[in-house]
Amino acid sequence: MVYNYSERMSKMNGAATREILKLLTRPEIISFAGGFPATQCLPQKEVQEIAHELLSEGRATDSLQYGTTEGFVPFRQQLIEYVKTAGIENISLDQTLVISGGQQGIDLMSKTFLDKGDVVFVENPTYLTALQIFDSYQAKIVGINADKNGLDIEDLENKIIQYKPKFLYCVSTFSNPTGKTYTVANRKEIASVTAKYNVMVLEDDPYSKLRFEGESVPSIKSFDTHGNVVYISSFSKVLSPGLRVGVAVGDKEVIRKMTICKQGVDVTTSNLSQLIVYEYLKRGYLFPNIAKSLPIYRERKNAMIDAINKYMPEEFKYINAEGGLFIWGEFDAPINTVELAPEAIKHDVAYIQGQVFYPDGGGLNTLRLNFSNATVDRIDAGIHRLGDMFKEEIAKLK
Ligand SMILES: Cc1ncc(COP(=O)(O)O)c(C=O)c1O
Known about the structure:
By secondary structure, the protein is of the alpha/beta class. The protein has helices at about 20-25, 45-55, 60-65, 75-80, 100-115, 130-135, 155-165, 185-195, 250-265, 270-280, 285-310, 335-345, 375-395; strands at about 30, 95-100, 120-125, 140-145, 145, 150, 165-170, 200-205, 230-235, 245-250, 315-320, 325-330, 350, 350-355, 365-370. Strand 7 (about 165-170), helix 8 (about 185-195) and strand 8 (about 200-205) form a beta-alpha-beta unit.
């Protein structure tokens, strides 16, 4: 059979990290490749307690039936309170949409705004799967330069004038892949320059609650006076990725359009999952669970930084994240992390080559390390092996 695929499939191979991720089921591999929350941070007991009650006699129809596409109303009311923790005030019910994870928010925004050939801006580098979604809508992806403070505003403004993008996608707090957080001043400037040119912003925030150092910062959405910012958040990293629940907040007209798109995608986010998250929040379980998780992440992040300082070559420069799940590194030497990823697997350790996060295929000398899902001992052992491998490669260059 010759399959006559759609044109959009031509750019969608998804192969870049798949081979590595497939190998990670081997227990001997120390994986710094994924982005999973730590297993012991998944609140199995509380979710079991809630699910048991929700599925008890007389109540089960609530969670086992269809619901509205917008989401369960009391849950949406609760989410209006929840987004206040990101500085987002004065949100009405019709400005909220329950989504099946942040990933779906990126897809719905794209379905709502993108036609073939439209331009999307992303930070250079950015979240790999967002790039894949934009590709699936046959958009032209343009990278915006960034530094430690956030986006380069001059570059953003110049490129807005040049490309007239449909929207800017950014992970403003503890970015995937870099772990970086935009400053408050940078957020205000992003809100103001995009409003000036009527450019939409999709602010993706799955990580801001996972802050184990420093002061929290308000979202870009909190500085939106123009209605051009859509903010999405998710319960995947703070509760459970298996439940597939998140929220989108934006102008009511835009949320309405995204809701229409969602009807054709999954009709509604699982009622059972929505009700579990709703009850979990209502019973006050979320913030204590986050407070319990943060010391685990802090300890693992510190272990990774210590190990990097001990074992990695001095040419390796890294960003020391104040939260989230990732450390981003770059070699000050022509080290090809794409070629060396399979070599690392031979040493039973996995990282993600940074190149996959660049829309233009740059970043050959970069890599992303996840610290949340390995024990301190395995972090030390894994970085030791990586350090030895990279030192050997650097020695070959001299
Ligand atoms: C930046 C970013 N956005 C979105 C997602 C998708 O998460 P989910 O759909 O589970 O909420 C992830 C997951 O790793 C992510 O890192």
